[in-house]
Write a structure and sequence with these properties.
homodimer, mainly alpha, Arc Repressor Mutant, subunit A, 0% strand, elongated, DNA-binding (chains A, B), HTH-type_TetR-like_transc_reg (chains A, B)
Chain lengths: 220, 220
């Protein structure tokens, strides 16, 4: 195996060890030594790949987010292939005719994909929670959120705009799409927190999100 | 000073030391020894008041929540005294005539009081964030949320019901009040998280919450 690939593979193995710790006992007080033990390598070897806990946490978070992105893309892809949602022979022809899956349905898949509804997304949100607790006191980790969240909000706002143009939205008071997008992201964040705390089940969280989306979309 | 009062006063001093740490560097990896140092007492003396970090965190969280409750009550009291909001000579006569402050306005004060909009509420939400990160992996700490959140949701739901009975709500699709209340609590939770992360200012968080409330209430 080429050296670069090996390096990346080893970093992923370490990230997975970190996720196992994050999803069972959390990251409070967890040292690089603990993660090395979980990954079954020496501390010196771990430090060859990550010099600090924050560096490791950031890598693990980015990777778990990219896996979540991929799962969400697959769910959107499945939507496009469903009958009656404008499924065409290829994504290109859909774009040409403007007949992709309804933007409201795409928006729903994105938001549902962010909730802890199965084991994979649960681990992702647990790593996210551990990251959040550190990031509020760490300028470098905060940067990640300050860049990522407005980008996500812009994307969701563009879906809301498309939905309006296609007449998918309900008749109620229309908010500015960016405001609506930030409200949706915040809502999912809070629903996730109360699911992780056991205040509600994942199913209840999904039902509550759907109740809010039903208010925004006339018919999705 | 009687011994019991002294005991409680000392526990409050320790809780305040914990808040100072929580609001500056967070509680990740913070030991009882660190808190004893911040409170300027010996570790042995601290352990006379709190045996474990979780016991101390729970006491500090309950106390900071009760201070927040008190601030919110004062803000609601101030509403009742404002002209044009049904201010009567006493709370009793208001209850008799059903002319207290509008339930929508009370709801808004409760929710705004939960956002980190000033230094006191900011410290409260920082302690809450530190508690959250531990609670998702600690059954006893989770219990606190599993009891407290449904109680809060019930209270907010009762305000929503009163608002509907008084015709304060907007014409849009009406959700079940408990669902609406859980959505509001989740929304405030997420808005708080993104304010603490510096994704938005406190002012922006308040504006976004108001945009959502304006959608629910026709005229508040």
């Amino acid at each position: 195996m080429p050296k670069k690939v090996d390096h990346e593979a080893r970093r992923l193995e370490i990230a997975e060890a970190l996720w196992r710790i994050a999803s069972t006992r959390g990251l409070d007080g967890v040292s690089l030594r603990d993660v090395a033990a979980e990954a079954d390598i020496s501390l010196g070897r771990l430090q060859h790949y990550f010099r600090t806990k924050d560096e490791m946490l950031l890598f693990a978070l980015r990777h778990i987010n990219s896996l979540a992105d991929q799962r969400i893309r697959e769910r959107i892809g499945a939507l496009a292939a469903e009958p009656g949602t404008g499924a065409g022979p290829s994504a290109e022809s859909e774009a040409e005719t403007g007949q992709g899956p309804p933007p409201g349905a795409v928006l729903r898949e994105c938001l549902m994909g962010m909730l802890p509804l199965d084991e994979k997304s649960r681990v992702g949100t647990l790593v996210g929670a551990a990251y959040f607790a550190r990031a509020i006191h760490d300028e470098r980790l905060r940067e990640e959120a300050r860049e990522g969240i407005p980008r996500l909000a812009e994307f969701l706002a563009s879906l809301l705009r498309s939905a309006r143009e296609r007449g998918e939205t309900a008749g109620g008071r229309a908010l500015d799409p960016y405001t609506e997008a930030m409200l949706l992201i915040s809502l999912v964040d809070g629903l996730t927190a109360y699911t992780l705390l056991g205040v509600q089940t994942g199913e209840e969280a999904a039902q509550r999100l759907d109740a809010h989306l039903d208010r925004l979309f006339a018919d999705r």
